[in-house]
Amino acid sequence: SIANGTITADSTYAEVGETVILTVKPHTGYELDTLVVKDASNKTVTVTDGKFTMPASNVTVTATFKITKYLVEIASTANGSVKVDPDKYAKGETVTLTVEPATGYELDQLTVKNASGKKVAVNDNQFAMPASKVTVTATFKLSTYGITVAKPTNGTVKTDVSKAKMGDTVNLTITPKSGYELEKLVVKDADGKEVAVAGNKFMMPASKVNITASFR
Questions:
Q1: Local confidence band at 130 (pLDDT 50, 70, 90 cut-offs)
Q2: What is the pLDDT of residue 1?
Q3: 107 close to 80: Cβ distance less than 8 angstroms
Q4: What is the pLDDT of residues 136-168, one digit of tens each?
Q5: What is the spatial distance between Cα 26 and Cα 198, in angstroms, rounded to a whole number?
Q6: pLDDT in tens, 68-120
Q7: What is the DSSP string of 43-97?
Q8: Which of 54, 101, 145, 172 could cross-link 105 (Cys pair, CB 3.0–4.6 Å)?
Q9: 3-49, pLDDT tens digit by residue?
Q10: What's the rounded Cα separation, in Å, for the pair 77 and 141?
Q11: Closest alpha carbon to 38 in 20, 19, 57, 24
Q12: Which of 134, 107, 128, 90 is nearest to 98 (CA)?
């Protein structure tokens, strides 16, 4: 008597030396875990590919079945990574994906497909495992960061864009009031680190920036 599956032999009696063929049929959602054949002395009989050679005694066949777990395969990605641990799940289990964009990037699309190529619904980087292996693909895009200009006195500072991506060139237009000139111009990233300015231009870092200026 076996739970979660059945095993049948091609005969109920066999002569010494005959090959006995076993047919294993797991129930839906299960797979074979162990398959053991023992003779009347409780000695294990070798089973290969579901077949064994009949010894000179009665034999008893026992088996156990386990819940099938399917593979979560992560496709190669650029500008970020997707991780999962463990990498196998049973049908209906919740799979949580860890998405890690590279510096200056953010997740664009996250797609999960089953073995038939059908999309699996993903919410907040989680999905319910279907009854097949799945393939996870992700694309990442450059993040867009805001540019804040503190309002100075005795002049104005303007940028040609209000937002920019990492590596973009941001142009500054500096206009002192009549009788004044620029004294100091500082661009800092979100961590307070100064961003180099040359020729009234700077390269956007991987964060928002704050611009301050003073005129004399």
A1: very high
A2: 84
A3: yes
A4: 999 999 999 999 999 999 999 999 999 999 999
A5: 71
A6: 999 999 999 999 999 999 999 999 999 999 999 999 999 999 999 999 999 99
A7: PEEP-BTTEEE--SS-EEEEEEEEE-EEEEEEPP-SSEEEE-SSSEEETT-EEE-
A8: 101
A9: 999 999 999 999 999 999 999 999 988 999 999 999 999 999 999 99
A10: 12
A11: 57
A12: 107
Tokens 């700077």 locate to 202
C-alpha dihedral (94, 96, 97, 100), degrees to nearest 10: 170
Owner of token pair 């303007």: 158
Distance separating alpha carbons of residues 196 and 205, to the nearest angstrom: 10
Residue type, 83: K
Rounded CA separation 95/56 (Å)? 50
Give the three-state DSSP class for 38: strand
Whose CA is closest to 119, among 102, 132, 100? Answer: 132
Structure tokens at 132: 């097949």
